[in-house]
Amino acid sequence: MSAFFDQYGFLMVAIVQQALLGMSLWYPLMAGQLSLASIGFYSLGGYIAAIMGTNPWFAPWREALGPAIYPLQWLIALIVSALIGLAVGIPALRLRGIYLALATIAFVQVLNVLVLITDVTGGAVGLFGIPQPFVSRLGYIWFFGPLLVLALIFSARLTRTVAGRSFMAIRDDELAAQAMGISTTFEKVRAFVIGCALAGVTGAMSAPFLNTWNARQSSFDASVACLAYVLIGGARSIWGPLLGAALLVALPEVLRPLKDARLIMNGVVLVVACIYLPQGLAGLLASLRRPGKEAGHA
Amino acid sequence: MRSIIILLAAVLIANSALAEPVGKPIPIGIAVGQTTNVALFGEEQVNGAKVAEKLLNEKGGIAGTPIKLMFQDTGGDEAGAINAFQNLISRDKVVAIVGPTLSQQAFAANPIANQAQVPVVGPSNTAKGIADIGEYVSRISAPMTLVAPNSLKRALKMNPAIKNVAVVYAQDDAFNVSETGIFQEAIKELGLNIALIQKTSVKDTDFTTQITAILGANVDMVVMSCLAADGGNMVKQLRQLGFEGTIVGGNGFNSPNMYPVCGKLCTGVIVAQAYSPKAENAENQAFAAAFKDMFKKDPAQFSAQAYTAVKVIVDALNEVQASGKDVAGMDLAELHQNLNKALVASSYETPLGEIVLDQNGEVTQKTFYVSQIKVSDDGKTGAMELLPE
Amino acid sequence: MNIALFLQNILNGLSIGAVYSIFALGYTLVFSILGIINFAHGAVFTLGAYCTYALAVGDFGLNGLLAGLSMPFRLPFPLALLGGSLIAGITGVLVERLAFRPLRAKGADALLALVSSLGVALIIVNLLQMLVGAEIYSFPSDIFGSLPMAMIVKVGGKVLAVRTVQIIILAVSMVLLVLLAWFMNRTRMGKALQATAENPETASLLGINVDRYIVSTFFISGVLGGLAGTLIGASFGLAGPYFGVSYGLKGLAVIVLGGLGSIPGAVLGGVVIGLGEAFLPPDYSSLKEAVAFIMLFFILLARPQGLLGRQTIQKV
Within 10 Å of residue B267's Cβ, how many Cβ atoms? Predict the structure, then answer.
């Protein structure tokens, strides 16, 4: 298509992709749980898609299924991520606050090292030459776009269901929620597993999107970036992860003309956004729509 | 709102409908990692490319038309490499791309260029399968199959009494894992005994445990496949803890970063090299002199390889020009195709010696080097002295 | 395992573990007083190492804005170490001013401080690269004067090898820990710091100027980070502006393992992880980076508050 989409097609889809990762943190955060495990499940989902797409063992499957192999990859990534999420979540969610965050970081780090020394994952080089369903990067919007829409609809509905209200009750006051008869452990694990499953599917879609998959996909930087999307976007709005990802993923690209200074400027924007947008971009937008109410005192 | 959309659409359509001549100066893209921890290599590549721009333009560029390098930082990740490539292709409208730094990034970004039919020359991608990514992908960085056995032979020549060997390799680095395989076969072929094998990590800095084992095994030689930061630390600690035998390092040691890490304790280490600043071919003499003039230091292998990648593109552009076409006036898409045809199935005189790109874009390098590290007594300056044949 | 190898591993583990401890103490002090992790601590660690290098060696390489420059003076290593750590301490104070105080003043979500401190880390690290490039720097081997590089001892017929720098690291760390313990438990200021950490509101009712103590905490934390950075740098070289990141992550594992906000916990956590890494058989050395996190994961499952942590509701 046009030059603009050639240049920024990948970036625009990357925003949606990263927004999905942000959303996968948003669910546990909705229940007041700070988890950084998403990136691990993203990596896991990516490996499932990459192995199914390149390993000779799956060649008959690929031939038999054709493009239907992609939804199958998503489904397997979803099931595996949800199961492992359950196994990790039940013991880990006894932890609170930063302890939980650190336990999830530990989980991701251990996963990374295991991947490096396993043969089927391609070791340090990783897997490459992953089959492509679309010619242009922009085509991948047909993968991530519907998933984002589904996730947004799900989130919007969730905030009105009993489960969603239970999540928020736990976030606001866990003891009170318990007193109201909410099974806090069950709800926390539920929020966590929803996030894990979403991250796994996003990963499975991302392996063909990036053409290659390796252990570097789940770095610590990447997991903190996901948290930043949610917080800068606004943790209390379903639009938060999307807004945050839009700003933070596009920012280094917008700042390209600054050359050497672009990551310094990126840091400055992070700090300024935290200070001046305590309710995130979503909070800012809301306060613009309701003039008179200052952002920051919602 | 509506008028804005129409305006935007008009601009976009007008943009894509234009036939695009290459223009002057001729833009060549450099997409390497200038930030994040990849910058350790990326900075050296940028320096080599800058020397290429200056030197090759002084030599007349493309029939008098200068080249201009467009730098786009890839950062250390795959998405960054794809973004840098798309900027070079769509905005900077380059005739070819040199990059990216890491093989993993190449697997992500090179298909983008291949699909846009923009030639890519990999300056430092050594993993298997790079040249197979597509028709428009080539590389000038050769895997090290010949040089490793040579370096062992030199070591034996210097000390024929060597019998027992310890092998060390960084098992989380693809290049070093494949290199140690070559080393180990060569050791057996030379009739030496591998007394023990120790694995390390490129992220590691403290090797006391491994060294304790090596010292206990009474070996005459340690053969290491590591990178400069970890390998340099291990050499330093080996010497500090009293190892006096021969040390042979793979191509990961071929970096000026060795000198600051292990200082004068590096002296005497034998290094298998894909590039030596001391190599006597005319291309290298000119390059090394220009580099020293600009940066006051000998060029690193990453710099020489980046220079080589630019040189290969410029040579191929000159070939297109010589075929009777005006490169600067050509349609960009047409030039991409012509350039790629000229790039592959050719041989080039470069600082790495003569290299040949086959029809697939895969490289064959004719000459490799074996050197010995010499660091001055104050530990401040170092050099790799070529060992005589 | 023979006795020499056992002793060797103990020594290696203690030496690296001591640095982990000092580094982690910087985290834990800030956490104890604010209940927040300072993600910029790894960057301050790196900055301290580079500042010491600038003061003690001062020759810059071929990349960055300072390329080819040479500082007009050279300080002896102990003085440079002090200077570098002080600059790191001042940077710690700046980090507080930039990333923490404005958020505290607004009563913003404490999680935001994770992101804002990360932003400051991004600024520091990339500023460093802009100035001195990403190449490797290192201290010359004569910074410790004429001490021999290593000592070789025979234990039971086997070699026990000790690098001098390991001994120096261990000694400096011990001195520092004793100093810190004295400061926290025996001085007015230390006691006030502890009171503030215990309960900021009560402390401010008691007339303790909480803001001032928060600033002091960040200063001490920065100094500790800078010291740890220099010790690691002196031992293994400064492997680019990003070399603090992996230590930063490991430091997090250390404090959580030991128990957040607990000073003895940070020390114990550092030593436990250092020893764990040292006793890992060389064949599994690719797992070394994971040792800290495997231990962390299992210890947290058994003791959710860490080894020496108290069972309280954490803020963030």
Answer: 18
- Rounded to two decimals, what is the model's pTM? 0.92
Query: Which chains border C (3 or more CB–CB pairs < 8 Å)?
Result: A, B
pLDDT tens for each residue of B212-264: 888 888 899 999 999 998 999 999 999 988 899 999 999 999 998 898 888 88
Is the CB of residue C233 less than 8 Å from the CB of residue B30? no
Q: How far apart are CA A241 and CA A237, in angstroms?
A: 8
Three-class SS string for C204-241?
Answer: HHCCCCHHHHHHHHHHHHHHHHHHHHHHHHHHHCECCC
| Residue percentage of chain B with pLDDT more than 70 | 94
Q: How far is CA C74 from CA B378, C77, C78, C143, C226, in A?
A: 15, 9, 12, 11, 19
- Domain ranges across chain A: 2-219
Angle at B23 between CA B46 and CA B7, to 5 degrees: 100
**Do residues B216 and C158 make contact, with C-beta atoms less than 8 angstroms apart?**
yes
Domains for chain B: give ranges and CATH numbers. Answer: 19-142+280-357 (3.40.50.2300), 145-273+369-386 (3.40.50.2300)
Tokens 């080249």 found at: B67
The model's pLDDT over B92-129, given as tens digits with 9 standing for 90+, comes to 999 999 989 999 999 999 999 999 999 999 999 988 88
User: Domains of chain C (ranges plus CATH)?
Assistant: 3-302 (1.10.3470)
Distance CA B37, CA C240 (A): 7
Structure-derived torsion over alpha carbons of residues C97, C99, C104, C108, reported in degrees to the nearest 10: 160
pLDDT 10s per residue in chain A (298 long)? 577 887 889 999 999 999 999 999 999 999 999 999 999 999 999 999 999 999 999 999 999 999 999 999 999 999 999 999 999 999 888 887 788 888 899 999 889 888 888 889 988 889 999 999 998 899 999 999 999 999 999 999 998 999 999 999 999 888 899 998 889 889 999 999 999 999 999 999 999 999 999 988 998 889 989 999 999 999 889 999 999 999 999 999 999 988 888 899 999 999 999 999 888 899 898 888 876 544 444 3
Rounded (10°) CA dihedral B168, A120, B79, A206: -170
Over its C-alpha atoms, chain A yields an Rg (Å, rounded) of 19
CB-nearest to C137 from B204, B209, B260 is B260
In chain C, residues 280-299 whose CB comes closer than 8 Å to chain B: 280, 282-283, 285-286, 288-289
A155 in Cβ contact with A26 (< 8 Å)? yes
Neighbour tally for C140: CB within 10 Å = 16
Which residue in C has a C-alpha nearest to residue A270's C-alpha? C119
Contact indicator for A279, A296 with CB cutoff of 8 Å: yes
| Contact residues, A window 7-36, toward C, CB-based 8 Å cutoff | 34
Runs of H (alpha helix) within chain B:
2-17, 39-58, 78-86, 103-115, 147-158, 174-189, 208-216, 228-240, 258-262, 282-295, 301-322, 332-343
What crossing angle do the helices spanning C41-56 and C3-34 adopt, rounded to 10°? 110
* B174/A216 touch (CB, cutoff 8 Å), yes or no: no
Put simply, whether A128 touches B (Cβ < 8 Å) is yes
